What we know:
The structure holds two protein chains of two kinds.
Chain A: E1 2-7, H1 8-18, E2 23-26, H2 33-44, E3 51-54, H3 58-69, E4 76-79, H4 81-86, H5 88-95, E5 102-107, H6 121-124, E6 132-135, H7 139-154, E7 162-167, E8 175-180, H8 183-190, H9 215-247, E9 254-257, E10 264-267, H10 272-285, E11 290-295, E12 297-299, H11 303-310, E13 315-320, H12 330-339, E14 348-353, H13 363-379, E15 386-387, H14 391-404, H15 408-412
Parallel strand pairs in A: 2-3, 4-5, 5-7, 6-7, 10-11, 10-13, 13-14, 14-15
Antiparallel strand pairs in A: 1-8, 6-12, 9-11
Helix pairs in contact in A: 1-2, 1-7, 3-5, 10-13
Chain B: H1 2-25, H2 29-32, E1 40-47, H3 52-65, E2 69-75, E3 84-92, E4 107-110, E5 132-135, H4 141-148, E6 153-156, H5 170-182, H6 187-197, H7 203-219, H8 251-254, E7 275-279, H9 290-294, E8 300-303, E9 306-309, H10 319-323, E10 329-333, H11 334-347
Parallel strand pairs in B: 1-4, 4-5, 5-6
Antiparallel strand pairs in B: 1-3, 2-3, 7-10, 8-9
Amino acid sequence: xxxxxxxxxxxxxxxxxxxxxxxxxxxxxxxxxxxxxxxxxxxxxxxxxxxxxxxxxxxxxxxxxxxxxxxxxxxxxxxxxxxxxxxxxxxxxxxxxxxxxxxxxxxxxxxxxxxxxxxxxxxxxxxxxxxxxxxxxxxxxxxxxxxxxxxxxxxxxxxxxxxxxxxxxxxxxxxxxxxxxxxxxxxxxxxxxxxxxxxxxxxxxxxxxxxxxxxxxxxxxxxxxxxxxxxxxxxxxxxxxxxxxxxxxxxxxxxxxxxxxxxxxxxxxxxxxxxxxxxxxxxxxxxxxxxxxxxxxxxxxxxxxxxxxxxxxxxxxxxxxxxxxxxxxxxxxxxxxxxxxxxxxxxxxxxxxxxxxxxxxxxxxxxxxxxxxxxxxxxxxxxxxxxxxxxxxxxxxxxxxxxxxxxxxxxxxxxxxxxx
Amino acid sequence: xxxxxxxxxxxxxxxxxxxxxxxxxxxxxxxxxxxxxxxxxxxxxxxxxxxxxxxxxxxxxxxxxxxxxxxxxxxxxxxxxxxxxxxxxxxxxxxxxxxxxxxxxxxxxxxxxxxxxxxxxxxxxxxxxxxxxxxxxxxxxxxxxxxxxxxxxxxxxxxxxxxxxxxxxxxxxxxxxxxxxxxxxxxxxxxxxxxxxxxxxxxxxxxxxxxxxxxxxxxxxxxxxxxxxxxxxxxxxxxxxxxxxxxxxxxxxxxxxxxxxxxxxxxxxxxxxxxxxxxxxxxxxxxxxxxxxxxxxxxxxxxxxxxxxxxxxxxxxxxxxxxxxxxxxxxxxxxxxxxxxxxxxxxx
Lengths: 420, 348
């Protein structure tokens, strides 16, 4: 075991390497490119025994990944944002092939307007595809989750592709100390891929995922995939126990931080959740009984675990780094669905939207979120969803609009827009 | 087989060196127990190509070698060479959970003083009286103190650490100076960090970086440990964020469109230039197309058969210098070119 400095991208590449991946179809996109560059370099230097093929698009890349997985070998790939969306048709298609592989997504906000910085709308778009999803908050977690993802994907009761998600910039380009486990230990943990009846071979044609007419066979196949995804909850728990025993790092389906005696709980995905954790420590120091829940598994969604962890809590603030147009925060809605009707569900479930397109969330904003949630509990009234956006930010936005717009005069009218 | 032996040899050599280093310096978590439990936050500002990412990595590695938990990261957009970029380093005795841009830096390192007045570069963001500003500049610290009217301590990189025509080593110089200002990084750790981070480069280049970084480190002795971290805002005494309800704007306003035509001309990207291409018209063979065609920014116009460089928009990428068949374009450090301009002006 060595402890070195690695970016999130570097950690993902190490995950693919240590899991003894055979095949990597690739297509570059910021902020993911460093992953495939790193792997390409290793293959070039004979440090990694794998085949990499650069494809002409992410659509082809996912098709190649699943086709290769269907031949019974271990496959890794990576993408981000617009690339993930470009591959979306095949994401939904190949999960039905029941050929497992691991796809790292480096989260980046979606166009329009186009950006390079992170939020979770890209990976949320893959939410219903049949890919399982593990969300990471540190570079170490990216490496460890990539290893766990292979076992999850390849498990006989699952056999579905898995997305390992990390935030662009905040993890992808950020170096942190990361422990690289010994290859032999990893070999023991990840094991070999037993492809069972998955053995697509040259000269032995297989019709993969045939057409069905009539809803009944269609329903059968779709619901079987859903149940396989749900098996992920049980398998994941076994897996994380095994991982903790061997490597000493615990990754529960939901990472609960200082929640046992908390009456206010923050809920957040991904690397921004470490900022929430830092805020929880400082709020605790000031006497607030507050905790943090960070789901690592988004698919399957750990409904029962959420119910148990939030039973009897007074107020919950969900901070969504995504936005479902016309609805709001996705995680907030999913959690509301999971908690509805549960006798011990918290009475106040607040929604905050923050971190869109990499917009930072300050320590003070976490303090304020805690305060607003406490007030909602005390006054027994849930405030409407809140976008984290300051007056100063709007002023700066108005200035940009003045530069970009012929409506400059209107914008200059006390910073407010007037109608004709 | 030979190549394999070579690789192994190099690895073995590195491992040996590492072991020696550890023994000499007894680095480990235990050694740091009992030290001040506060996070260092350092921000580097420069232009794409000046090595700010590498500078942040060297400093991050040096902290790591001293037994700190660290985080280092660059931040840039789609534009690269010449564009304002920054990179940051956090270091703490504890695991670091804070992420993203450093809003309250303890130390701000400015490799290129032309960035200070550029609002988009954000050099002075979050700078207060506890922040130390290290500026690479011909101007004295006193001049900057007056110019910026800040309570912060300003340190100018001493002239002896910089040869103006050696701008490509400015990252190493800045890192060396920064390491000394922090006061918790030993000279040998800085040295080893540079060797680690530049391992892919030739020995000669590593040596040049090392000598400059160590010279800067030594020159900063007077200011050793002048950077001190501060505690965070406490949860029971904070300023509330001034959140607002975003007003609804019609699509006429709220669609992300730019209506004003050709406004990119107004952005003087020529300010990004660290090297200036200068055409020697004696040598130029009036081919009328090579330099202007290769210029990625369309900043070379041909008037008849004479190429003219638009210095308002030339970013100084030096593609024209590389492409010109009769080698008629010379690369001159921007500072030197500006001095020459000023002298010409005086003569006139």
